[in-house]
Amino acid sequence: MRLVRLGILGSGKGTNCRAILESIKNGALTTEVRVVISDVFDAPILDIAREFSIPNAYLPPGRFRTRLEPQAEVDLVRMLRDAGVELVVSTLGNRRSSLGKR
Q: ∠89-35-87 over CA atoms, to 5°?
């Protein structure tokens, strides 16, 4: 069985990210997380990714509070493609509504 390759986007504490990663570790979820990306430099979600040895990255969002700058959107898509992500899980809520649109 081939695993679906996930990318997780988040900017906060990482509670949902941790739940996903623990579910994978326990065998309750059969998928693979390829990258965790945050638009907050010191977001705890990035620490959680490191704790689970998942590649992670900070994506500078630019000057807007509710969406990414156009170049940041391009960078996000490139990061997800480079990681081989097939499905994006956003734990951002409505903070950056344009994350994951492309």
A: 35
CATH number, domain at 62? 3.40.50.170
Q: Minimal CA–CA distance to 40: which of 16, 77, 7, 68?
A: 68
Q: Flag whether 79 is in a domain.
A: yes
pLDDT digits (tens, 9 = 90+) for 48-77: 999 999 999 999 888 876 778 889 899 999
Specify if 102 maps to a domain.
no
How many domains does one find in the chain? 1
Dist. CA 11–CA 45, nearest whole Å:
7
User: pLDDT, tens digit, for every residue of 68-102?
Assistant: 888 989 999 999 999 999 999 998 754 554 444 43
- 101 within a domain of the structure (yes/no): no
User: What number of other Cβ atoms are within 10 A of residue 75's Cβ?
Assistant: 16
Strands (E), the chain: 4-9, 31-38, 56-58, 87-90
| Model-wide pTM > 0.85 | yes
